[in-house]
Specification:
With 123 residues, the protein is mainly α. 75% of the residues lie in helices and 3% in strands. It starts with a helix and ends with a helix.
């Protein structure tokens, strides 16, 4: 179920939203030119990390791994990525949004139980 097209579309949407949250949070952290740097730099950094560290032959991704990592490391990376987005919303005092976003991420991972089991078996 973790590789079902609807679940993959949901994960992609969650990834995009998390990057937008990082950009908004970054904008709020800086003044003047630093606001622009943080607003653009933080999402770029996060997306580079997201796309670089992968499990080889992950059926929910392209199967390519620029930097091959173990499955549990990839799962931890994903959880940190989405948790950071929730914490950024919390920091910006957007309580309904961080609760909703966190709940949708949790639902996504509940439907991805087969992918989680696969990731935990990968070395």
């Amino acid at each position: 179920m973790g590789s079902h097209p609807l679940n993959l579309a949901l994960r992609f949407l969650l990834e995009i939203i998390a990057l937008l949250i990082a950009g908004i949070w970054g904008w709020n952290q800086g003044n003047g030119i630093f606001g622009y740097i943080y607003a653009l730099g933080l999402p770029l950094l996060l997306s580079a990390i997201w796309g670089t560290f992968n499990v080889l032959n992950d059926p929910s991704r392209s199967g390519k791994a620029p930097v091959k990592v173990r499955g549990w490391i990839r799962l931890l990376l994903e959880l940190l990525f989405f948790s950071a987005a929730c914490l950024m919303l919390f920091d910006m005092e957007h309580k309904p949004f961080y609760l909703i976003f966190g709940a949708i991420v949790a639902i996504h991972y509940l439907f991805s139980f087969d992918r989680i089991a696969w990731l935990l078996k990968q070395k």
